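pasting for ref
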Amino acid sequence: PDPGQLTSNSIVRSYRLLNKKPKRVLLNSLLEAKQRYGLNDFLFYKLARTSVQVVYGDTDSNACEITLFGLMVDAGFDARLTYRANRIFVNIYTTEDLFEVPIINTGGRRYANLSCLDGECSGRQRLFILDEHPNPRGRSFGFQLHNWPALGVQATVKEMHFQYHGVQQKMKVTFDRTVVDIMKDYPFIHEYAYLETPLSSTLRNSLLPQLRRYLEPLDERQRIELLVSFTRSAFDYKEDNEYFGHSKPMVPEELFGYNFSDCEDRSALFFALVRDLLNTSMAVVAYDDHLTIAVGTDNIAGDSFTYEGKRYIFCDPTGPKNSSRIGQIPPGYENKNFQIIGTYK
């Protein structure tokens, strides 16, 4: 459609015209890549967007959006087009929690604006919803990363130092920078989803055996102390807004790819380490401005609470920096309310 004259009729005409073009070969190729590389829905969409942008170049961004819309519909999703002024947007139905992404609610469903993930559409701006709705019973689009895709590994070695009960320890850890690259512009999903994300096989095969050797001779309390010592003292602290200029929760791998991390990031890594090395129950504790982890135990003394019949002790993965002490409410939060946003086991 003429970008200066966007109307419902002109967009529908363009969609129907583009829909007649032979895009089945492209769609089949994209779906094959999704399966071959184990892409989740969002990474499949990113591949589709990159492919369509190669086809159109910089000539017609609206044709690009309409074609993407058609591809998502044909792939089985419920998508809607919105528009304003001279721009068209692809919106997709999702049941997952998203933050800092424009959402519209219509027909009892929530649609995330996939064309506005870069933050350029911030603020309340009126959008018109196109009546054309080709797949109203389409499936929900997923953003969570239950498994990492089978893409090329960028093995990167990092020397780590941490203090356990005042004694300096060191190790060399290999992580996958491809995972860090994937997450650079990833939408802001629910905090608990970052904790559920698995370690890459590269990081798992490097970090876990080394930590397991440390843990072998230790008792239950000492094992938790060692893991909390690692997340507290092996990484430098800086809040997201100061470091990135915006909020950026990290999956565990990203702590090794950046120079700084904060409480959400340390909690994600600690959660993964306790899960994969100790297989102990945990509760994710959210204050207004702090995230921490509590570990389920009946045997270790310290500050604790009971949740759903199970006792948990506080094991803050963030600080104090060089302390190995567990069973202590994070300093400054002794009298503050918190909520449990997730549990393991």
